[in-house]
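Page 42, continued from yesterday. The earlier attempt failed because a stray header line got pasted into the input along with the sequence. Redoing it now with the clean sequence only.
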Amino acid sequence: MIIWIVWYLVGVALAAVFAVAVLPALFFWMLSALFPVRDRGLGKYNLRGGVSVLYEPSLPAREFIAQYQLCRSNSARSCRFIGEWAQPVFCGRYEVIAYNSKGRIIGIFRVEESSCGAQFTRPLALPEGTDCVSVIFTRANGKKFARGGTFCAAFFARFALFLLALAAAAVALFAFTLLFVFYCLDSGAHADLVWSFGQYVAALCAAAACIVGLPLLLVTAVVFIKKLYAYINTRLKALGNAAVQEGALRKSRWAPVAAAIYKTGLRLQYLAAAAACRVRNGAAILLQRLPARHQTRRSGVVPGAHTEGK
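This time it went through. Structure tokens are written below.
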């Protein structure tokens, strides 16, 4: 009995070590595909006793944080995150995702603070191997924002691998527990409850299939529904705009004819005014060429005309 207890404890310890050592690494590797590096570096500056790198956040976070810097001192191995507020925020909740030099996530830090009239955020200590970060706002000034992950093929592949590792740890723990319980039942009055080897393997396979299949199927269904909803919404808006444009074209079917008539009227008015101007100019020239007496008789004394005194 003591041997079985020791064997069970060793198996549980091995499953726990596997879960602690492998699962977090696979989980962050999966999140690295879901939240890739989106911020842009602007410049590197040498400080007294350290160095500072200035970054510009992605477009969604730029509404609240204009830019930020990662400060690393020569005496300390860790670096600090300091952001500059783009506008006053009375209730801000954001996440700072730290990446290493290979672009893998090594830490996620959730921060909740308000600007309180300050220009910069409170300094946030980051892990030692931090090479760059991404800032994602989830709530600000009473509004909630989606994280906006990238659901690509790499994410689903890494998610499936993470679920397989999780299923392996869970099935191992379940197997050690079942073996220990079956040994205890086998030596007692409940020997008829002991499963056969086929039932034992079928139970383990069913547990592993549920651990891997259900979350993967659920996430795939949610992503598919969101994509389908976005596609349908976009198509409905496009069809609505097309219908409005088509209706406007139908309503303005005679608009080109009306515009042509209006332009023709303006042209006729211009020609009539030009003809009247030519007639007036010709009449004036003709009157100036007539003798002075005729001009005097018709229109009085013409300036510059010679008249004889009586």
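Notes: Strands lie at 40-47, 50-56, 65-73, 79-85, 92-99, 105-113, 124-126, 132-140, 143-144.
Reminder to self: strip header lines before submitting.
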